[in-house]
Every structure is written in structure tokens, then in C-alpha cells.
Amino acid sequence: MRKHGSQTVEVTQSLEAFGRYKSRPAFQDWIYRLKKGERLPRGRYFVGKKPGRPLQIIDDFFYR
């Protein structure tokens, strides 16, 4: 049921980070610590990646 003045938002999620066989948390942490304008280190893991944290939306809705 929608309330007056609300908008419908469609969201898709992927299990890319959860389904990896060999996760690399140290490299991912390095990417997250960099700011948006900084350069990533050279290496095959960092090819095609962007520095900075991705946008994370946390959906917590509680009824009273």
C-alpha cells in the first residue's frame, strides 16, 4: 500500500561480491580507502575499477 506523496523505486542487487571463489578483501579495502580523484595502483586486479566506496543504501524501516 502506497502512502500519499511517495514514489516507487525499483532496485536491483547482484551477488557478485558474495559468489566469488577467491575474494580479495585486502585489495578491495585499498580501493575503498582511496578518494574519488586518486589513482589506483598498477596491477591486473585494479584494471577497470574505480577508487572510492560505492554508494550503499541501507533500508531500515520499522513499524511503530
From TrEMBL:
Superkingdom of the source species: Bacteria
What is this protein called in UniProt? Uncharacterized protein
Q: Which organism is it from?
A: Salmonella typhimurium
